[in-house]
Amino acid sequence: KASGLAAGKGVIMAETQAEAIAAVKDMLEGNAFGASGHEIVIEETLYGEEASIHAIVSGDDFVCLPPSQDHKRAGEGDTGLNTGGMGAYTPTSRVTAEMQAQIEAQVLRPTLDGFKADGIHFCGTLYAGLMLTPKGVRVLEYNVRFGDPETQVLLPMVADDLVPVLLASAKGEALPAKLNFHPGAAIVIVLAAGGYPDSYAKGDTITLPTTTPERSAIVHAGTKRAEDGTITTDGGRVLSVSGQASSLQAAADLAYGVCDQVHFDGKYLRRDIGHKELNR
Question: Which one, of 110, 106, 105, 96, lies nearest residue 67 by Cα?
């Protein structure tokens, strides 16, 4: 993997030694990720399912949002290159109440204790990217921000007013003991430009539906608005469409229905977001 920031695309999952050698050469000699890939990290491949845990933190205090699962690979069936994320859903049944408690006690709490030991009074969002392996929970990464695209499924599930909670976190004040969440599930589908995460075109006109169903949303990402109001593509992950419903299948049907009303040349999306959860 590239040691520097690479927009979520700097990890190469090499299945063979030859693939690993080719990836190393691409980064060190081929400048595949620019300066970010001039130093590389070689790590053990972890097998299992991904989970994203978001905690709103105020010093020693924290409260968690529902566990979610991102889909990093570009292709259906979790194949192809890594991306910044092609879609996500929440909650994931792979993170049981017992596992959530374990993550809070063995991952989040020691991390906050480490902050304190280093003289850091952390206030904000702590996002842990985890792998749920046969050997247990493993931490892949931390971010001190909300995840993308996970945020688009987490926010619709929060039944409480989140603003006072975020403000308390920012001020280092006490947080509520827990947050309340809507029943059901939420899903988000990323609409990407053709060719992403490799080279892709920009400047294609986007046609959007005039209205969207209740509990669905279109979130702009790699878009640009001209003076005449025309909206065009301006990035790899162009838009995302979220849906929240009583079940993951209903949320998926809602979101994909809106996806099919969005049009631009080269539009690409995965049609299997949430497939592992739906097939359990």
Answer: 96
The Cα–Cα gap between 66 and 221 comes to 23
**Residue 156: cis peptide before it, omega within 30 degrees of 0:** no
Phi-psi region of 207 (alpha: psi -120 to 50; beta: other; left: phi over 0): beta
Cα–Cα distance measured from residue 214 to residue 131, given in angstroms and rounded to the nearest whole number = 33
Domains of the chain (ranges; CATH) run 1-45 (no CATH), 48-171 (3.30.470.20), 185-278 (3.90.600.10)
| Predicted pLDDT of residue 6 | 87
Q: What is the per-residue pLDDT across 114-131, written as a single tens digit (0 to 9) for each?
A: 999 999 999 999 999 999
Specify the 3-state DSSP secondary structure of 69.
strand
Q: How far is CA 118 from CA 52, 107, 186, 226, 271, in A?
A: 25, 17, 37, 48, 45
The amino acid sitting at 7 is A
CB 203 within 8 A of CB 193: no
- The rounded mean pLDDT for the chain is 95
What are the pLDDT digits (tens) for 127-157?
A: 999 999 999 999 999 999 999 999 999 999 9
Q: How confident is the model at residue 11, as a pLDDT? A: 87
If you count DSSP H runs as helices and E runs as strands, how many of each does the chain have, helices first?
7, 13
**pLDDT tens-digit map of 24-39:** 999 999 988 999 999 9
275 pLDDT higher than 80: yes
